[in-house]
Write a structure and sequence with these properties.
Blueprint (H helix, E strand, L loop, with lengths): L14 E4 L4 H9 L7 E5 L10 H12 L4 E2 L11 H5 L7 E10 L7 E4 L19 E9 L4 H6 L3 H18 L5
Parallel strand pairs: 2-3, 2-4, 4-6
Antiparallel strand pairs: 1-5, 5-6
């Protein structure tokens, strides 16, 4: 597990705001450095909250596209309760692309923040989980407010499903699994 976490001491990572159309370029950069067999997608979230279902929805779509290493799907989510256990399932030496939903400013809703660095899961709801990923995508599914749990519960399912498909399709295109 130590290979995948421990990023807490690293300097701040630059995050780039991306539209759905720009995601393929993000994934193309990764695919030029790592083969599909070297990559594990860590899709964080739960199927019990509309806004937080982005990770499992994305993971399920990635499997359907044919990616061999995906952790976190609708049938087997990777959430705050089991994240640290799921990290042990990642193949040794794998390059991790972490994907999670987040809350943000209204001008960022429906956009993505891509980074060549880790994501900090459950930050918007104040849970202390390890930072994860060599690369990460945070999908802004709704506006940050005083009640993050409630906000995630009332987030548009259509928006979350659309964003999950944008991520999965962009990754599949970049790795040659789709056109």
């Amino acid at each position: 597990m130590g290979d995948y976490v421990g990023f807490q001491q690293a300097p701040p990572v630059t995050k780039t705001k991306l539209s759905g159309e720009q995601l393929q370029s993000f994934f193309t950069g990764i695919s030029q450095q790592h083969s599909m067999d070297q990559v594990t997608f860590l899709c964080i979230g739960t199927d019990r909250s509309t806004g937080d279902a982005l990770g499992p929805l994305t993971g399920s779509r990635l499997l359907e596209y044919g990616f061999p290493h995906v952790i976190g799907t609708l049938s087997d989510p990777c959430d705050a309760c089991n994240l640290e256990t799921k990290l042990q399932d990642i193949p040794k030496g794998s390059t991790i692309i972490a994907i999670d939903a987040c809350l943000g400013q209204s001008s960022s809703v429906s956009f993505f923040f891509g980074s060549a660095g880790p994501i900090h899961p459950a930050q918007s709801v104040g849970k202390p989980l390890p930072s994860v990923g060599h690369y990460s995508i945070a999908a802004v599914v709704n506006v940050q407010g005083p009640k993050p749990y409630w906000t995630l519960q009332v987030t548009s399912l259509h928006l979350v499903m659309t964003m999950a498909e944008e991520i999965a399709h962009a990754a599949a295109s970049a790795f040659g699994l789709s056109t």
